[in-house]
Task: structure prediction
Amino acid sequence: MLKSAFITLLVLSISIVAGSASVWYALKANEGIGAVVVGQWTAFPNLGTTEADPYSRARVAREGTLALGRAEGLSFSATRDIGGDLLRRECTYLVEGPVPPARFWTLYVTDPSGAVVKGSEYRPASLHSYQLTRLSDNSIAISAGRHPSPGNWLALSGSGPVTFVLNLFDTPIASGTGAADVVLPQIAKVGCDA
Result:
């Protein structure tokens, strides 16, 4: 009797721990069900719609974020640079390349909990499409790091991992299935502080 109660308790404990771990992983994963991956960037096009999968809905509920609907835009996030290394505040990055057509877009940096990272004393850790100098081919080149840089500079401060978030508002790629065919800027590591 005691042996079967112990075995039952052991099986239930393993099931609860394994189930909780799998749900935690599914909610924290930046890729997975419903994700569209473009280079280093990941988006969930169905996140703000009725077609969103249960894991995406749970992620929105847990994080308390306001998801963009298809008519509003699309949000891409990146946690790794072009070399596959995690993005960190101690490093300097070059975000360079084309941005898909959109009426307005923003680029900002968050910590792993989703809170916006504080920039420098004089600059926020966010930029938008109306304040940038563009290259001759209409693409962008943004330096992101702790140290000021000429041209477009996204100020970072502190230490630890970060996520770059690119929100495209009122963009044609959000309403169709063309999100996977889009070309986004690449994030290349320039160097890191010792």
Notes: The helical segments are 2-28, 54-63, 172-175.
